Amino acid sequence: MNLNLGSSAMCSQDVEVRSSCRRACCVGSEHLRLVQSTEEIVATGKLAKTLKCANGSRWLRVSSLRIDGDRESPPVGWTDVYIDPAYTEVAEAAREQPDMLISSLIEARYGRCIAEIQQDVHGALISEEMAERLKVGKGTAALEIVRRYAISTRQAKRSRCRSAYTPRNVSRFRCG
């Protein structure tokens, strides 16, 4: 399923989404994000294709467990967020504010608003490595959700991408 949420600007000052799936772009705000690692990476091969960026592009990856409620709750998903390395401060802010979406942190610190969101949803089986992180069995069915956020600036658009594995509470991601 490929869900394009339109090209309307999404700033807190001017929220407009031309889709009945508005809730889909705000789901992350319902969960706490527990940052597990941050790392500057070079996207090549499959990752570059997923991010729809040039082979060799540099990104800052913020990897997090997503949980409901308190820090003792079992994980509801794993998220890898790829952002422009210029937004390094956002990684620390994400640790300090686990209830804030990374897109909201970027907007607050840099004034960059989301201009477009593209979302792909695919069925996936949880790998052994991911199963340990998510406390589920290897091969558990999950949704792999890849969102590409484009921000508008006067000079150019720069994408951010979020890839998530969600074995629990999958119905929260349904539109309607």
From TrEMBL:
It comes from the Bacteria. This is UbiC transcription regulator-associated domain-containing protein. Signal peptide: none annotated. SMART domains: UTRA (SM00866). GO terms for biological process: regulation of DNA-templated transcription. Pfam families: UTRA (PF07702). InterPro entries: Chorismate_lyase_/UTRA_dom_sf, UTRA. GO terms for molecular function: DNA binding. Residues 26-171 form the UbiC transcription regulator-associated domain.
